[in-house]
Amino acid sequence: MARMKFLCDAERCIECNGCVTACKNENEVPWGINRRRVVTLDDGLPGEKSISVACMHCTDAPCAAVCPVDCFYTTEDGVVLHDKDLCIGCGYCFYACPFGAPQYPQKEAFGVRGKMDKCTFCGGGPEPDNSAIEKKMYGANRLAQGKLPLCAEMCATKALLAGDGDMVADIYRERVLKRGGRPNSWGWETAYRKNV
Amino acid sequence: MRVRTIATVMLAALLLSGCYETTDVVIHEPGIYKGAKDPLLAVDGTAGFEEKLSERFMEGQAPR
Amino acid sequence: MKLTKKRELNPNESGGLNGVLGKAVDRRTFLRRAGLAIGGGAVAATLPPSMIQKASATVTVGADMTDAPVDTKLSVCTHCSVGCGVRAEVQNGVWTGQEPDFTSPFNMGGHCAKGASVREHGHGERRLRYPMKLVGGKWKKITWAEAIDEIGDKILEIRESSGPDSVYWLGSAKYSNEQAYLFRKFAALWGTNNVDHQARICHSTTVAGVANTWGYGAMTNSYNDMHNCKAMFFIGSNAAEAHPVAMQHILRGKENGAKMVVVDPRFTRTAAHADHFVRIRPGTDVPLIWGVTWHIFNNGWEDKEYINQRVYGMDEIRAEVAKWTPDVVEDVTGAPESVVKEAARLMAENRPSTIVWCMGGTQHTIGNNNTRAYCIMQLALGNIGKSGGGANIFRGHDNVQGATDMCVLSHSLPGYYGLSDGSWKHWSRVWGLDYEWVKSRFDTTYVDMKPQGTTEEGDLPVPFANPMNSAGIPVSRWIDGVLEDPRNIDQRDALKAMIFWGHAPNSQTRGPEMKKAMETLELLVVIDPYPTHTAVLPDRLDGMYLLPAATQFETYGSVTASNRSLQWREKIIDPLFESKPDHTIMYLLAQKLGFADELTKNIEVVEDEPLVEDILREINSGTWTIGYTGQSPERLKLQLANKHTFNVTTLKAEGGPCDGEYYGLPWPCWGTPEMAHPGTPNLYDPSKPVAEGGLCFRARFGVEHNGKNLLAEGSYPVGSEIKDGYPEFTAAMLQQLGWWDDLTAEEKVAAEGKNWKTDLSGGIQRVAIKHGCAPFGNAKARAIVWTFPDPVPIHREPLYTSRYDLVAKYPTYEDRRSHYRLPTRYASIQATNYSTDYPLIYTSGRLTEYEGGGEETRSNAWLAELQQDMFAEINPADANDAGVTDGQWIWLESPEGAKIKVKAMVTPRVARGVVFAPFHFGGWYEGVDLLDKYPEGAAPYVRGEAANTAFTYGYDSVTQMQESKCSLCRISAA
Fold it and tell me: Are residues C834 and C916 in the same domain?
C-alpha cells in the first residue's frame, strides 16, 4: 500500500514558483488562493533556503481532527480530501494545520469555493472523477487519470517530489548520499556552525 | 357540503404535506464522514492503480 | 481548549449536546433549500470566462469540455533560452490542459513559474484584440486593411521625403527562426540596415567578444553538458531566477561533485546554492577576472600545452594580468585576496571547469572587454573545447539565439555574413534576386561621404560607400537616431518612423529622452500580442497604431535554444481574436510596400501566409557560415517525434530513427540535410571527428599576425587528414590538396571560385569533412583582438562611477564622432563626478515570474499575482541613511534627472552602497500609473515603474550595448 507524500528537497529548491503556477494552471484556483506556496528562510542571507509548502496529507491530520462537521476523509493512499458540501467554512482547520494549508476565498466567493480550499494532491473531491462539477469545485483529479500532482511533475529542478513515500525517499536518499550528507552551500558554516 | 369538506381537508393535507422538511438531510455524527462518496476510493489502493502511479513517478520524477 | 481526535470518540455515543447537534440541518441541505444550486450554471457564472470559452470574439464553446476529444500538441516555452518542451492539450480548439513534457531532454517535464503558466496565454484576456489607431488621443478600432494601408502610405511618404533609412524596423527575439530571417530579408528589401532586435541589448558584447576570440559567438556547450563539470564559475548570471530550469542541470552537476562559484554584486538565489560566493562592485568584471587569472599564472595552474597549441597572444595578457595584484584587485573590486584565490583554486583544481555569464557581464561600456576576459581565463585553464568545460553563455529570450543567427541586426546579414558587397551578392543569389536591384533599394543619394569603420565581427575595415554596407543605427540608440541633429547622423535624415515589432521599450535606458523621441516621431507602430509600454509612454494624439500579432503558440516553426539546438514548435491554437502571425503581417506589409513577390520568390504563400517550411529551406540553402544548412524541417520534425530517444547528458540519440544525432542538430550542422551531419554538441572539441560533431577553433583572423602563426599547432580533430592547423577551405585549397575530384560534377560547377561559406552546393564542406577537416579551418583562439579599441581587455571605470578616484587610473574612452552612424560620448560624461550627489550604485536584473519588458507575463494572472509591486532592493544601512523603511514608497533619482517611484525592499542581499531593481515593470512613468492610456481591457494586471527609466547614457565601444548594470542614483522617501 502506497502512502502519498510530498517532499521538497531544499538543496534543489530555487524558489522559482513553478509549482505555484503549475497548481494554478491545473486547478484553476482564483487569484488570492494559494494551495501551494514557496517559503524562503533567511532571505538574502548566507544559508538562505527555500521550500515549497502545501497540504502535507498528514496521516493523522489535525484538520480532520478538529473539523466540527467531519468533512474530511482519507483515501487508501493517504490523501486527505474533503467535501465542500459539508464544509461550513469555519476556519477551524486553519488553526489546526501546522502548514497553513487551508485557504479561504475572500468575499465574492468563487462559487462553492466560499468553503475551505486546499491542495488535493491533484485528487479532486467526492464527485464523479474528472466530471465538470469536480473540476469546478476541487480542481483536477490527476490521480484518477494515473498521474501525480502537477506541481511536482513540473518542478523546474525536481526539488519537489510527489508520490509513494517509499519511492520519494529512495530518490532523496540517493541525492543526500551523493552530496555527502550535509548542504554544500556558501555561508552554511557561518549560519549554522560547522559540522551541523 | 361533505364533498366540499373532504376536498378542503384533502387540499389542506396536500398543501401541508409540502411543508414537510426534505428527508435528504445529513445528520452529523462526530467522527463519521457523511459526505458524498468519492469514486476514487473504489480504485485507490488497487494493484492496477498503484502500478500506474509508480510507473508515472518513475517516468517523470526519477533521474533520467 | 482541548482538541479531541474524532477517532477516539465513540461514534455510537448519543445523548447530551450530541443529539441536539445531530439533528441540525447541514450546510448542503440548507443550500438546496435556499435555492442555490450547486450545479454547473451558478458556479460557471463566477469562473473566469477563459476557462470555459474559446477566447474569440465570435466562437463560444460549451462549458463542459470533459468529454471532448483531446489533441496533444508539442511546443517550446516562449520565455527563455533553455528551450523547455511544452505539452499542450487542446479540446475543440481551446487550450484546456498543460502536461509536463517528460520526453524533452532539456527540461524533462520541469518548468519555472513562467513555463508552468503558458496555458494562460491561450486565454488572452489582456491581449490586444484588433488593430487600433490613435485618434485625438483615443484608441479607435480599425480593420487590418485600413491599418496596412494607412501605415504603408505613411512609410512610403517618409521614404520619398527622407529615404528608406528614416524608417526603423525593430524586430524581435520572440520570432521563430523563420520569422526572424524573413524580417531581416524584409528590411534588406526595403533598403535599410536600420533593423535590430533585443540581442543588441542582451548579448551583443558576447557575440562580438567571443566570435572574435575563437570564431563563433555562441554558448560553446549546453545546459545538459553541465552534468559533466567539475567546477562552474558564474559571473553576472543569476540562473536560479533567469534560467530556472537550467538549475536542474547545474544542481545535478553539483551533486556529481562540481564546485560552484558565484561572482555577483548581489547575493542572488543562485549564490545561495553556491559553494563559494564572491561579491564585487558592479562594473569590475575585468579586474576580478584578471585577479583570478593572476592566481592562475602565479601558481602555474595554466594549461601550457593547450596554450601553445591553441592560443595566440597570451603573453600580452600575462603582462596586463601582472598589474592586477591581489591588493589592487581588492581595492577596485572589493573582493579580498583569500576569496579571489579560492575561486581560482576551485576552477584550477577541478577541471574541466566551465564559466557562465549573462547580462551582469555584457551590459557595460566595456562589455566586450568583459566577455573577452572571461574567454581568456578559460583559455588559460585549457577549458574550451571540452565536455564539462566551455563558455556556457546563457542567452535570454526563447529565440534570441536564433534571431541573432538570422541577424536581425543592424550590422550583418543572416548567418553573420556581414554587410560587404560579397555578402549582399551571396544572399541576393540565395534569394534569387538581382544584386543590382537589391542595391537600388538603398538610399543611393547618400554615398562616398563617410570615413572608414570596422564591423563588429572584426572583419577588415569596410568603406562606407553606400548605406547598404554601413552598420545601421542599433536599437540601443534609436532615441538618438530621432533626436540627434541630422547633420551628425551618418545617413540622409533622422528617424521618422519606428516599427516596434515585438519589443518592449522599457528594456531600454534613458526614459525621459525615449518619451521625447516617441513624441517626436511622425509614425509609431506597435506590432505585438500586447500593447506594451510603447502604447502608453508617449503623450501623443495621433500617428500611432497597434497591430495584434499572434504568439508563438498560435503559429509554428523552429526556435534555437541557447545551446544552438533547433526545436520545432507545433501550432497549439489558432491566432486569438483578430491577431495574425508575424510572417503573415510581414507579407501583407511587403505587398503594400511593393516587394512581396521578391520577398517570397522561393516561398509558397497560402492565404497571405508564407509557408514556414519553405522559409526554413531557404535558410538552409544559404546559411553556410554557421551550419544552419543541415536542419531541414523534415529532420527537425523527426526529432520532435523522437525526443525521448536522446540521452539527457550527451544529448545524443541512442537508437531510434535519429540514432547518433544530437538533440536539435546544434549548429554548426554542416552540409546539406542529405549529408546527415549530427550537429555539434560542444564547439571546438577535437576529441570527436568533425563528421561526428567534433571541431577546432575557427581560422577567422588570417594565418599570421605580427609574424606569428595564427593556425593551430599540433592540435586537430580526431581523424583529420591534415595533422596541423590550416586556413578556411576554398575551391583553390581543395585543388591544392588534390581533393577537388571528390566533388561531384554538379558540386564542381557550384564550387568553382567559391569557398566554404559561399558554395551553395555544400560540396566544399562535404569534402573537407570527408577528410576529417573543419570547413572553417583550424586555428588558434586569439587572446588579443587587434581590431578592437582595447586589443587586450582592460578595465575602464563606468561613465557614472562610484569610485571617481579611480578614473585617473582607469579612464573611459574618448568621445567618438561616429559609431554605428551616431556620435557616441564617453569622456565628456565621465568628466563630471556625480558620485557625491548620487552616492549609490544602481544596478538591475531579473525576476523569475516575469520576462523582458514583462508586458506578456504581467498580463498573465497566475504570474502577476506573485509579483505585484515594482521594488528596489536597498541595503539596511543605506535605508537607514535615507530614512526609508521596508515596504515604503521611495523616489529613486538618476544623475540625468529621471526619477522613478518604487517600493523599498530593505535587504542585505545587496551590499551597502548598491541599489538593485528588476527591469520587467512598465506602465508607470515618473510616479504616475498610465492605466488610462491603455486600450480598454488590454492593460496588464500589474504595472509599475520601469527600472530603465532611471538608467543613464553609456554604450559599449564595439557593439553599442547599453550600460544598464552600473549607474548611480539617490533615494528618498516618497
Answer: yes
